[in-house]
């Protein structure tokens, strides 16, 4: 069984026995068990989620009635957005041109608008910077059915708002929960690629993964990564065209949105104050202390937990007798 490089809570993990990746080197050789374990350098420094540029479907819903969703192209505005996004992402991963030891690997949805977005973004990068690119069907757009009749889709989307965005399944299509399942499968494959060094990454270079996808797929990726609840997902706002989110590895070995993004940005995206507090903690956290630092996560599921078996014994017992 292959050891995951990152566990289900998004924590960098050090394998307990032989590791399949030949690129892992460690920052120190301190065997003191009381100290934080070093982080393998094979871990990506950043994972950047990008939504495609403006498409003809974004501009005019009628496009979906005559063109299959996967074949809808970018608008001229969307092409410009993609070029600008490539330049902005180059600035992020090169630290505004001050860093030289970095490489980038791309994953892209198979839809025309995402592939075109990647093509235009790629103009910002030289060939020597790009480790590779892979088309990945599991990060495609939510399936809304085949050709979409405008009036019918309006009624369906109104029904979705009443039912709930995560669990509502489009007739002949998918729910956000379905997208979550395939994005989760993609994440497992991604970490196997890293664990076995299938990306052929030199540990002397910072590895940056850029995933060009769609609004919903990006949101459920974040939901899976940070273990957000369905209720928390429902409050998230969609990414704008060519907007991106940077998940970056903090000094303590946790991945966080707060390394690159501001609190104001996260509020605009729909993160609650508790979620933002967690992101800030992750930006500087020690990998071994997660369970001690997330009472808000427990509070989302329990109305009351005693601090110890002896605390509030009478109150707890009275709750059972009510």
From TrEMBL:
Gene3D superfamilies tied to this protein: Phosphoglycerate mutase-like
Membrane-traversing stretches: none
UniProt-listed InterPro entries: His_Pase_superF_clade-1 (IPR013078), His_PPase_superfam (IPR029033), PG/BPGM_mutase_AS (IPR001345), PGM-Related (IPR052765)
Endpoints of the signal sequence: none
MF (Gene Ontology): catalytic activity
Entries under Pfam families matching the protein: His_Phos_1
PANTHER family: BROAD-RANGE ACID PHOSPHATASE DET1 (PTHR46192)
Protein's recorded name: Phosphoglycerate mutase-like protein at74
Organism: Nicotiana attenuata (Coyote tobacco)
